[in-house]
Write a structure and sequence with these properties.
With 446 residues, the chain is α+β, with helices and mostly antiparallel strands. The protein has four domains: 57 residues, Arc Repressor Mutant, subunit A, CATH 1.10.10.10; 114 residues, HprK N-terminal domain-like (Udp-n-acetylmuramoylalanyl-d-glutamate--2,6- Diaminopimelate Ligase, Chain: A, domain 1), CATH 3.40.1390; 116 residues, CBS-domain (Roll); 118 residues, Thiol Ester Dehydrase, Chain A (Roll). Helix content is 34%, strand content 23%. The chain has 15 helices and 19 strands. The strands form five sheets. Strands 14-15-17-18-19-16 form a six-stranded antiparallel sheet. It has a five-stranded mixed sheet with strand order 4-8-7-6-5, sandwiched between helices. The protein has a three-stranded antiparallel sheet with strand order 1-3-2. A hairpin with a 2-residue loop joins β18 and β19. α6 packs parallel to α7. The longest helix has 20 residues. The two termini are 54 Å apart. Pfam families: 4HBT, CBS, DRTGG, GntR. This is YtoI. It comes from Thermobacillus xylanilyticus. Keywords: CBS domain, DNA-binding, Transcription, Transcription regulation.
Length: 446
Amino acid sequence: MPEVPRDEAATKHERILEYIKDLKVGARLSVRSLARKLHVSEGTAYRALKEAESAGYVSTRERIGTVRIEKKQGQRDGRLTFGDVAGIVEGQVLGGAAGLDKPLHKFVIGAMELDAMVRYIDAGSLLIVGNRENAHRRALERHAGVLITGGFGTGEDVIRLADETGLPVISSKHDTFTVASMINRAMYDRLITRKIMLLEDIVTTDSAPLTLRMSETVADYLRLRERTGFARFPVVDDRGRIVGMMTARDADGAEPDEAIEKRMTRPPVTAHPSMPVAAAAHRMTSEGIDLLPIVDRHRRLLAVVSRSDITRAMQFAGKQQPGETIDDLIWSGFTEEKRTEDALPVYVGKMTPQMSGPAGTVSEGTLLSLLTLAAKQTIREVSRRGHVVESITTYFVRPVQIEAEVRLMPRLLELSRKSAKVEMELHDEHGLAVKALAAAQMIDPL
């Protein structure tokens, strides 16, 4: 193992991180071993290990432990890793732990003769098979991982080969059909998740954002505003942690030599890189702010995002197809009735058996989703602007039967720069069945 860094100016926390970075990929580590090796408390070791995991230097998974991995990149490619699969199938890693962070692009079920099976195995794939050691060995030789079903193990020579090639061999107690279904479901869920745009997808940390220091003055703020043309700046301390925001309103009426620390707005509203763009839009609108600082788990400033950045991102995200979500399944059977140019859209569709609740009628959750989706679609068509639903009040007049033909009829009550209100009615052949009032916040570009 590498020696502990000797930089006396560094904190214990930083020394542990440097030690972890110097470990070989595949090395296993734990809080207790770090504390013992580096002569620190287990609490300090735990915090450093969590930061290393957040930074992508280690991976911790149930039943596997913590392993040094190749540093993860900021981009999310949506693929499962072998380590993800081990967790999904409740597997035990028999060998090749260094490859747990490697992505896989497909899995192959080994329910055929070996020669026929080999034609489907290539680099980055995962062979799902029972206790067939010759198949395990051939998969590793073709740069593929192995998932052994039925709780079986494998030979020592196969485990050595897995360690040499850095390709995991995983054993799961489940049968082949079960693990294939679990992996397939996870792949599909990951595809949907990949399409959800996060703040880390739209901001860059290559260059540091413009900031002010607590010790600077209002005159420094005014000079920075004049030089850049911007009016809002994060205020950071000596360690780069955000402590406030300085705006034109904060500077209004202040003496030029007055310290920023006394004029800034605190505490600042911040967000983490993993926050969805839609959630960030809602936060900025509800807080009435136009610049959102992005921070790490220690509140160190990473980047900033403006409301116009958020709006452009949401417009782009609206054009993407995220996959078949529950909302997609509910809404897929509804179409828009023909209407005149000035009329609001009316949506018609049929209640399917999958929409039923315990009582045999359409579930209240499905009806609520339908009314919400129809309200959002109406606001989108009328305003052509981004928005987020803030609240919805629903009145269930009477049950809706399965197989019933229904009409969703909206009425626009309010539409302004900041908000919208839509009244929705759901009618079946017997008349009004459900009524709702939806309120939304509008998201405007600056």
